[in-house]
Inverse folding.
């Protein structure tokens, strides 16, 4: 082994070589499609350092052995939770919620009110801020949505964020971007705790799902939010995902993506700022 490959990539309490980084990056890619460039070595070191301490290990080489050992499956899940980026906010990229509201006013609201089926999907929903923002937007246009055939599916690969999201409890600071007219109906305050109301929570179904595996739900979807998720995947993985989303949309369905992403797929055509719709045949 060359001296360069044996040298630690990061100065600190644990030795962390190029080979260790490669094993960890390959493990994450196989589990999630997330591509880790070498520039992320310091981030990997600091996020997984906590795991090494918890396991009583003294170097990343031993950690890689755990990933490959009898407790490997459990540790790969912990690695996934440690290395996924879960940053999110209520009403992030607000123009998407204006567009969604418009969709409900013109098309999806009347469809649901006349007994039609409306399905929305927050794919890569993290801690729940996105699907609950969708739910509050839907309720602002269609107050009885939960009694109609309207459902919001919210999925993420990380079981830890899904468990937190299901609780529907957030800090005052977290909830501050919620528009006042939606907060009145969507947020309750009891004994100093802030939580989303049952009206909001009843609309959302949470589940763990790796977007690169088979999707068990039937669809099709009228609206898919997949924002700030594909940005972590390589080009080929992104293209495959955009195509699958295109195929999962209703003929008038829309896909909303993150501000730094571009959805290039034969099934999709632009329909506004970071909004796409299914290309008509
Ligand atoms: C930065 S958050 C985005 C949250 C939200 N969509 C937003 O824009 O605020 C990215 C989320 O994608 C999830 N994720 C990453 N890879 C995934 C995969 N292969 N399948 C499903 N979710 C994935 C992560 O666990 C993380 O919670």
């Amino acid at each position: 082994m060359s001296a360069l490959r044996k040298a630690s990539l990061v100065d600190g309490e644990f030795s962390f070589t190029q080979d260790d980084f490669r094993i960890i990056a390959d493990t994450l890619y196989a589990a999630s499609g997330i591509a880790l460039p070498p520039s992320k070595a310091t981030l990997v070191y600091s996020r997984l350092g906590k795991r090494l301490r918890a396991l009583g290990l003294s170097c990343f080489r031993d950690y890689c052995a755990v990933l490959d050992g009898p407790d490997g499956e459990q540790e790969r899940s912990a690695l996934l939770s440690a290395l996924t980026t879960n940053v999110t906010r209520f009403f992030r990229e607000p123009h998407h919620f204006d567009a969604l509201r418009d969709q409900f006013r013109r098309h999806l609201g009347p469809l649901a009110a006349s007994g039609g089926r409306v399905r929305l999907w927050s794919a890569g929903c993290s801690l729940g801020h996105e699907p609950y923002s969708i739910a509050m937007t839907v309720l602002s246009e269609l107050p009885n949505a939960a009694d109609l055939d309207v459902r919001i599916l919210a999925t993420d690969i990380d079981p830890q964020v899904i468990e937190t999201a299901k609780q529907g409890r957030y800090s005052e600071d977290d909830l501050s971007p919620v528009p006042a007219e939606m907060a009145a109906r969507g947020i309750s305050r009891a004994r100093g705790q802030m939580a989303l109301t049952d009206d909001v929570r009843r609309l959302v179904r949470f589940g763990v799902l790796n977007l690169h595996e088979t999707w068990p739900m039937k669809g099709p979807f009228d609206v898919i939010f997949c924002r700030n998720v594909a940005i972590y995947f390589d080009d080929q993985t992104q293209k495959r995902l955009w195509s699958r989303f295109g195929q999962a949309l209703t003929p008038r369905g829309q896909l909303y993506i993150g501000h730094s992403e571009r959805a290039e797929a034969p099934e999709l055509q632009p329909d506004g700022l970071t909004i796409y719709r299914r290309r008509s045949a």
